[in-house]
C-alpha cells in the first residue's frame, strides 16, 4: 500500500509528467517499489508503506538524505542511522536484528532508468547531492590512511586496532560480559549461556593444542587475555601480545588479580616483535582478519618460526564461504568497525598454512556458534544500553549494535563463517608425534 501526503496516488515514475518535483517517499518507491516491508516517513511529510507495519523508518532531515544518496548501500544507511538522521521505530538501537532481518528478506531494489535518475537529481537539488562530512565515528577511507603508513605496516595496524578496540574497557565489559572475550564462543547447545560457551571455546582450543602443565604457549592478538588466563590457570606459561593499550592494561590487572603473574604476561606489542621461540603451541584467535591476505605467508611463517618441532598452531578466524570473493570488507565494516580488515575463504587459509610447511591436522566451521555469540552480545548491549551510551556516546553504541546485529544475520545466512584450523610443525623426518585420532572432546 502506497500513501503520500499531498502527493498523487499514481506511481512515482508517472510523477515525472510536467517535471513535478518528487517527494522523498516517491523517490524511495522508484528504488524499492510499492511493497515496502516497513513504514517509511520523511521530513517533507511524505510516506510509504503500511501504517500497521511492525517497524517504522523515519528520515528526519535533509542531511540523512545526503548520506543515503552520496554513499548508496550499507555505508550511507549506516551514516544516516548513526548520526540520528534515520530513526528506527519498533527496534531497540542496541539490537536492530529483527528490522535488519525483515529488510534483508523482503526489501528488493530496482535499478532506476536514466530518466528517473535525472528526475530524482532535479527533485533533490544540488545542496542535498553534495557530499558532506560523515559522522565522527567513521574512519578515513583506505586511500587517505596512507598518512598512518602502508596498509598492514606496524604503525597502520596499530591505528586500526586502536580504532576498534580502544573504545572503552567499561563499554566492552557491558557488551561482552564477564569473560571479556570478543571472539566466537563454542556452543554445545542453543540454550547454553554465553559465558559457558566462551569457557568451552577456550577449553576446545587448549585441548586441541594438546597443552599440559609446564608447556609454553604464545597467544598472538590475545585481546583481554582470556586464553592467556585460561591456560595459565592450568599451569601453562603464556605470553600474550595485543596492539591495544587498553586491552593490555586490563589483561595485566586481571592476571595479577588472579595470582597468575608467575605464569602469564600480556604485552602491549605487535606480535611480530615477540622475540622468544621454542613454544609448544601458538594460538591466534581473531587476529587473521586484521593482517591482510597478502601477508599470510609471512604471518604463518612467523608462527612456524616460533614453534618447536612437534609444536601445534591453532588459527581461529572469520572467513568467507568461498575463496573467490574480494578480500576487502564492505564500506560500513571498513570505515566503522575493522579498518583495513580482510577476509578470505578457509581454503586459502589452509593453503597458506601448508605452503609454509605446517601440516594441517584438523579444521572445523563454527558458523552457527558465532551467530549465537553475536545474539548474546546484542542482548547485553540492549540490556545495558543506558550505561553504554553514557560511556561512549549514542553514535558509537549504535555502531556496535548495527555491526553485531548485521553480523549475526551474516553468520546465520552463510555470508561469513568461522573456521578453526589446527596444524603441526613436523620434525626433520616428518614426525608429528601426535595421537592417531583427535584427542580432544568436540
UniProtKB/TrEMBL annotation:
Keywords: Lipid metabolism, Methyltransferase, S-adenosyl-L-methionine, Transferase. One of its GO terms (molecular function) is methyltransferase activity. CDD domains: AdoMet_MTases (cd02440). GO terms for biological process: methylation. SMART domains: PKS_MT. It comes from the Bacteria. Residues 171-423 form the Polyketide synthase-like methyltransferase domain. Belongs to the CFA/CMAS family. This is Class I SAM-dependent methyltransferase. It comes from Rhodococcus olei.
Amino acid at each position: 500500500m502506497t500513501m503520500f501526503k499531498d502527493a498523487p496516488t499514481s506511481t512515482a515514475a508517472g510523477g515525472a509528467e510536467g517535471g513535478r518535483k518528487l517527494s522523498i517517499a516517491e523517490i524511495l518507491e522508484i528504488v524499492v517499489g510499492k511493497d515496502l516491508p516497513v513504514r517509511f516517513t520523511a521530513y517533507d511529510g511524505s510516506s510509504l508503506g503500511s501504517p500497521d507495519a511492525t517497524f517504522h523508518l523515519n528520515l528526519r532531515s535533509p542531511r540523512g538524505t545526503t548520506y543515503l544518496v552520496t554513499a548508496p548501500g550499507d555505508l550511507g544507511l549506516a551514516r544516516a542511522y548513526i548520526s540520528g538522521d534515520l530513526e528506527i521505530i519498533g527496534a531497540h538501537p542496541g539490537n536492530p536484528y529483527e528490522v535488519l532481518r525483515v529488510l534483508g528478506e523482503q526489501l528488493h531494489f530496482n535499478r532506476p532508468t536514466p530518466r528517473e535518475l535525472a528526475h530524482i537529481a532535479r527533485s533533490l537539488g544540488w545542496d542535498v547531492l553534495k557530499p558532506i562530512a560523515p559522522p565522527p565515528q567513521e574512519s578515513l577511507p583506505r586511500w587517505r590512511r596512507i598518512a598512518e603508513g602502508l596498509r598492514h605496516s606496524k604503525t597502520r595496524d596499530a591505528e586500526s586496532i586502536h580504532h576498534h578496540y580502544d573504545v572503552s574497557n567499561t563499554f566492552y565489559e557491558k557488551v561482552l560480559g564477564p569473560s571479556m572475550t570478543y571472539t566466537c564462543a563454542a556452543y554445545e547447545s542453543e540454550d547454553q549461556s554465553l559465558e559457558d560457551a566462551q569457557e568451552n571455546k577456550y577449553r576446545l582450543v587448549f585441548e586441541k593444542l594438546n597443552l599440559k602443565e609446564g608447556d609454553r604457549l604464545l597467544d598472538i592478538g590475545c585481546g583481554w587475555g582470556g586464553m592467556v588466563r585460561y591456560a595459565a590457570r592450568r599451569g601453562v606459561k603464556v605470553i600474550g601480545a595485543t596492539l591495544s593499550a587498553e586491552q593490555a592494561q586490563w589483561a595485566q590487572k586481571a592476571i595479577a588479580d588472579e595470582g597468575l603473574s608467575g605464569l602469564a604476561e600480556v604485552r602491549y606489542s605487535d606480535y611480530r616483535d615477540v622475540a622468544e621461540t621454542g613454544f609448544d603451541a601458538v594460538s591466534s584467535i581473531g587476529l587473521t582478519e586484521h593482517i591482510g591476505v597478502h601477508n599470510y605467508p609471512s604471518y604463518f611463517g612467523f608462527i612456524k618460526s616460533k614453534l618447536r618441532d612437534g609444536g601445534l598452531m591453532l588459527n581461529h578466524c572469520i572467513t568467507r564461504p568461498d575463496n573467490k570473493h574480494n578480500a576487502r570488507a564492505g564500506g560500513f565494516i571498513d570505515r566503522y568497525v575493522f579498518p583495513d580488515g580482510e577476509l578470505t575463504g578457509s581454503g586459502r587459509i589452509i593453503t597458506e598454512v601448508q605452503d609454509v610447511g605446517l601440516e594441517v591436522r584438523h579444521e572445523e566451521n563454527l558458523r552457527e556458534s558465532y551467530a549465537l555469540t553475536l545474539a548474546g552480545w546484542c542482548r547485553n548491549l540492549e540490556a545495558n544500553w543506558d550505561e553504554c551510551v553514557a560511556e561512549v556516546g549514542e553514535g558509537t553504541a549504535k555502531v556496535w549494535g548495527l555491526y553485531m546485529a548485521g553480523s549475526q544475520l551474516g553468520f546465520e545466512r552463510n555470508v561469513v563463517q568461522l573456521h578453526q584450523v589446527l596444524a603441526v610443525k613436523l620434525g626433520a623426518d616428518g614426525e608429528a608425534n601426535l595421537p592417531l585420532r583427535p584427542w580432544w572432546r568436540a
